[in-house]
Amino acid sequence: MALNFKTLGVRALSALFFVALLLGSLLWNYYSFSVFFFIVAMIGLGEFYRLAEKMNAAPYKWTGFILGAFIYFNSIKDIFLSGFWSDAGKTVVTVFPFVVLAASLFSKKEQAFKNALFTIGGIIYAVLPFTLMHDLVKSSGCFGEGYNPNILLGIILLIWSNDTFAYLGGSVFGKNKMIERISPGKTWEGTIFGVIVTIGSGYIIGHQILGENEKMWILLGLIVPVFATIGDLIESMLKREAGVKDSGNIMPGHGGILDRFDSLIFVSPFVFLLMDFLK
Questions:
Q1: Which of 147, 182, 232, 277 is the most exposed place for a label (fewest CB within 10 A)?
Q2: Same domain for 76 and 106?
Q3: Is residue 163 part of a domain?
């Protein structure tokens, strides 16, 4: 098949813009980090709800967006950490699934329980992982005191390492399909090759680039590709059940927000737990 250089150029420019925007927002300051990932979370939530509609559900979109935005902003340091807003935030985060389920009792739409579950699922899948990243950057205030994006930056580099070398390993050595009904192109050989190289990448990131605990980064080099692969497969399963190729079209040639952040979405909660355990 002849290469379509126009399509290839669009994909390359789109990827370059995405990488520049992501890294620029992450490295600039806490404001840019918070705003960028809020936008990512809200667009991702919209994509999730559109996928849900293709699976014959009717999630309560406005309820989901309002709750998702409140939960996200509640994660921003020193804005909701005291007084009324802190108590309100904790209450919303704790009871929102039950409130949505209770509200579905009064819905006149069919399959109200299913709709409520998709509403809740969207917030858990597309918003919650990005709220947890606020703890990973260790900011102590909304003005950025103590802002340190190194861990999150390293995790993103590990995900990119795994994606790249799993693809290369699968192209060269791949024979045994991993879960063919969900992702026909993903092989065990490529996955294992990606994990092995990413463990080495973890050591390089920890020791050579960030100058931090290389043992922790070697462990992250093992954990990140495992959960990144699971996250990729889950998003593939979601799209397959919805009958679509991409979750959206915000990035020409690359799909939607969920397509680009599927690995980070699944990695984020587990790295958050690991960092909390190591404190």
A1: 277
A2: yes
A3: yes
